[in-house]
Amino acid sequence: MTDPASPPDRDELAALRAIVEGTAAHTGEEFFRSLVRNLSRATGVPNAFVAEFAGSNTRVRTLALWTAGGFAPNAEWTLPGTPCEDVLAGNLCHHPAGVPEKFPNDPGVESYL
Asked: Which residues contact 113 (CB under 8 A, 6 or more apart)?
């Protein structure tokens, strides 16, 4: 992604357009499923999810989980020791590699954004 002060480039606009067009006709559970599928496709990443708190602000469960080109069963996990914990603090969290080494409680992925 470019500097937030600069205008988006064509690739960014095309990705945003694909996400919006792919979700516009859906509501409820199907909206979230469509969102993660189109987010993955538009950004070229194999995994995407949308989650909500699960009874406390230290535990989440997915509303939709896309992985390796298909939907996976929804999952639930605790946040401490995962990259998601940093996101809750309001930070952009990008780890292009080495997630299992940096976050031993989150061994399921190699990178995270």
From this structure: 45, 93, 94, 95
pTM of the shown model: 0.73
**81-110: b (≥16 Cβ within 10 Å) or e:** ebbbbbeeeeeeeebeeebeeebeebeeee
From CA 22, how far away is CA 84, in angstroms rounded? 25
**Which tens digits make up the pLDDT trace of 98-108?**
998 998 877 67
In three-state secondary structure terms, 42 is helix
Q: What is the pLDDT of residues 22-35, one digit of tens each?
A: 666 666 788 899 88
